[in-house]
Amino acid sequence: MNEINFNTLREKLEKQEWPSVYMFKFIIESGNKNLALLEALFSETSKINLKESSNGKYISLTATELMLSANDVVDVYKNASKIEGIISL
Smallest Cα–Cα separation from 57: which of 34, 89, 83? Predict the structure, then answer.
């Protein structure tokens, strides 16, 4: 995502009531380092589900967490975008 996409996302999210539970979805290539970096973006209270692709090459991560604001959600996506090979859904 680039800065324009982050601003568009922020504008859409600001129309919601906060705090709110938000669901994040990502796909990454299998590998302990990338998975650890991604999981570190979420708090201990987050509900995280992992699913490996049928060929084992990718892992999908769904995380549900109580977020305080639209900016907090955008910050997670910004930090996630720094992880090599990540796909944000």
Answer: 34
Alpha helix (H) residue ranges in 1-89: 3-13, 32-39, 70-80
Which residues have CB under 8 Å from 69's CB, separation 6+?
18, 19
d(CA 74, CA 10): 6
The residue extents of the domains of the chain are 3-14+22-88
Euclidean distance between CA atoms 38 and 42, whole angstroms = 8
**AA identity, residue 17:** E
2: pLDDT strictly greater than 70: no
Quick check: 80 and 89 in contact, CB under 8 A? Answer: no
pTM equals 0.89
Task: Answer whether CATH 3.90.1150.10 is correct for domain 3-14+22-88.
Answer: no
